[in-house]
Write a structure and sequence with these properties.
Elements: H1 3-15, E1 20-24, H2 30-38, E2 44-49, H3 52-64, E3 72-76, H4 79-82, E4 91-96, H5 103-113, E5 114-123, H6 139-153, E6 157-162, E7 168-173
Parallel strand pairs: 1-2, 1-4, 2-3, 4-5
Antiparallel strand pairs: 5-7, 6-7
Helix pairs in contact: 1-2
InterPro entries: Cation-dep_OMT, SAM-dependent_MTases_sf, SAM_O-MeTrfase
Pfam families: Methyltransf_3 (PF01596)
GO molecular function: O-methyltransferase activity; S-adenosylmethionine-dependent methyltransferase activity
Length: 174
């Protein structure tokens, strides 16, 4: 994750005064650290990843940064199996950095998870410039284009594409 992407995540979490954030794709915890820094001091990050070792790395990273263990809830599993179990309208921000082939499905779940005024953020939507390349593209890029079109056309969302890192698609739920 680029420093600009991390800074944008911190800003977005702070701008919605986030108390509850859902993260799809824990990774080694870098994005979670930025989100936690932007969240309210009593905020809780719920992070989902299918790789338990990723969550172990993140848990250690959060602890090393001084975050109390009750600031993060780690849920192992595939995002599309876990997300339906999370509370409707219970989240201020949803950050998506999982399987890009599933981003469109994450968007549908995010509409349900977000409160009014909440933000959904998708990382890596430029796909290293391939989303605007006119040549033949792999299915991941075709799915990203479909996501961009769907979010842009949604009447429920106010959207912006931020040119930081490999592209952040941000949308506020009306």
């Amino acid at each position: 994750m680029s420093p600009g992407t991390g800074s944008a995540l911190r800003l977005l979490a702070a701008s919605v005064d986030a108390k509850a954030v859902a993260e799809i794709g824990t990774g080694c915890g870098v994005s979670g650290i930025h989100l936690l820094h932007g969240m309210r001091p009593d905020g809780v990050l719920t992070t989902v990843d299918s790789e338990p070792e990723h969550q172990q790395f993140a848990r250690q990273a959060f602890r090393a940064c001084g975050f109390a263990s009750n600031r993060a809830r780690f849920i192992p599993g595939r995002a599309l199996e876990v997300l339906p179990r999370l509370a409707d309208a219970g989240y201020d921000l949803v950050f998506c950095d999982g399987d890009r082939l599933e981003y469109l499905d994450y968007f549908a779940e995010s509409l349900r998870l977000l409160r009014s005024g909440g933000v959904v953020v998708f990382e890596g939507v430029f796909a290293s410039g391939r989303t605007v390349d006119s040549g033949p593209q792999p299915s991941e890029v075709l799915r990203l284009r479909e996501l961009l079109r769907t979010v842009r056309e949604s009447q429920e969302m106010v959207t912006s594409l931020l040119p930081v890192g490999d592209g952040l698609l941000c949308a506020v739920k009306r």
